[in-house]
Write a structure and sequence with these properties.
Blueprint: H1 2-13, H2 16-29, E1 43-50, H3 60-75, E2 78-79, E3 86-92, E4 97-101
Parallel strand pairs: 1-2, 1-3
Antiparallel strand pairs: 3-4
Helix pairs in contact: 1-3
Length: 105
């Protein structure tokens, strides 16, 4: 399946250490301490946004599930859809897929 292959590549190729360091620094600077004592205790959710004529035929929920599964497998993070510590954003257009980390709620 195309989504599974693309999301696996995105999660594998992304520079997570830089993104997570920036996320932690911003949270610390605003005194929003992360209660997770280790990376494996981090909770997260994934949000997907699609634009373009070709990607509108895709399913945001399926993309979110694939990215979430790949992140949980790679890092051991737990999914929390109600109050995650970290929100991973996926932007999909006809020409590119972009992963990001939300720094604001």
């Amino acid at each position: 399946m195309l989504h599974a292959r693309l999301t696996k590549e995105l999660v594998t190729d992304a520079d997570w250490s830089t993104a997570l360091d920036a996320w932690r620094r911003l949270r610390d600077s605003h005194e929003l301490s992360t209660p997770a004592s280790s990376a494996s205790e981090l909770t997260f959710s994934v949000k997907c946004y699609r634009t373009g004529t070709k990607t509108k035929a895709s399913n945001s929920s399926a993309i979110q599930a694939h990215v979430g599964g790949d992140l949980a497998e790679r890092f051991g993070w737990c999914v929390d859809l109600k109050s995650p510590l970290l929100t991973v954003l996926v932007y999909v257009s006809d020409k590119r897929w972009v992963l990001g980390v939300s720094v604001l709620r």
